[in-house]
Amino acid sequence: SPDSSDSSTPELEKAGLLNKTKIAEGGRKLRKNWNPSWVVLVGNSLVFFKDPKSQTPSSWKPGNSHPESSVDLRGAQLHWANEMSSKKNVFKLRTVTGNEFLLQSETDSVITEWFNTLQSVINKLVSL
Ligand code: I3S
To answer: Tell me, what's the ipTM?
Structure first.
């Protein structure tokens, strides 16, 4: 990509709308609370934005918006987790710090692409 030599501008890998619930914080279980979230994969981070309606294609850029939270993908684990919800197309993301998220889409191809893209980023980070 044109920016690949500029380490100060991490590459935007993927962005889109997913349903999200955080189910653990530092290993402590949380009550589920599903909400739509604008999810942005940039560099080694998965960044969540609260209000998808207010997002524009440029709003993921640092300084342009206020992320709800951000996840460091280094050492993270990804598992399909359809048994953890009555919803279809659910996977679980667990960070090294013991934060756990369920992510879901009604659209099979959407969730499959997210799963595959996240897994490949996680795998790349292992070998760095
Ligand atoms: O795994 P659970 O506890 O059945 O998850 C459901 C609950 O969190 C429910 O909220 P209440 O805390 O008011 O019961 C949510 O509305 C549901 O969406 C959760 O289940 P699903 O199957 O949607 O993940």
So the answer is: 0.90
Which of 74, 65, 60, 62 lies closest to 16, judged by CA?
Answer: 60
Mutate to test the pocket of ligand 1, among 32, 84, 90, 104 (most ligand atoms within 8 A of CB): 32
Closest CA to 117 of 12, 14, 4, 2: 14
CA of 87 to the centre of ligand 1 (A): 10
**pLDDT digit string (tens) for 64-73?**
568 889 999 9
Exposure of 46 by Cβ count < 10 A (0-12 exposed, 13-18 middle, 19+ buried)? buried
Find out whether 94 and 103 touch, Cβ atoms under 8 Å. no
User: Which run of H or of E encompasses 113?
Assistant: helix 108-126
